[in-house]
Amino acid sequence: SIDNALDKVCKISGFTYKHNEVAKLKCDIDTGDQKYVGVSAQDVQQVLPEAVKRAPSNNDYLTVQYEKLVPLLIEAVKELSGKVDVLEQKLSDK
């Protein structure tokens, strides 16, 4: 099982970004002015290292395997649902 999934999810921040010149030159990525959404591979590595690997085009960089974040998110939703259930029970007891 994935323990403390909600705490782990809370340690990951989402953001928008554009590829910089390094990505264009070293990783051969040219997407013009397109915006992307993502999470920091370093953040993910701290809480779920199984979801991070070296970038295939350049070993100096990390990449997130987003599909491997799904189990963490499922467990976080379950934890959050349990907290909601407790709060709802407390409210109904009053």
Strand coverage percent: 15-25%
Shape: elongated
Separation, N- and C-terminal Cα atoms: 34 Å
- What does the main sheet amount to? 2 strands, antiparallel
Count of DSSP H/I helices: 4
**Secondary-structure-derived class:** alpha+beta
Q: What is the CA-based Rg, rounded?
A: 18 Å
User: Strand order within the widest sheet?
Assistant: 1-2
Helical percentage: 40-55%
Average pLDDT figure: 89
Give start-end ranges of low-pLDDT stretches: none
Give the topology string: H per helix, E per strand.
HEHEHEEH
Total count of strands: 4
How would you describe what is shown here?
- With 94 residues, this protein is of the alpha+beta class.
- It is 46% helix and 20% strand.
- The protein is built from four helices and four strands.
- The protein has a two-stranded antiparallel sheet. Strands 3-4 form a two-stranded antiparallel ribbon.
- Strand 3 and strand 4 form a beta hairpin.
- The radius of gyration is 18 Å and the shape is elongated.
- The mean pLDDT is 89.
Record the SSE blueprint:
Elements: H1 5-10, E1 14-17, H2 21-26, E2 36-39, H3 41-47, E3 52-55, E4 58-64, H4 70-93
Antiparallel strand pairs: 1-2, 3-4
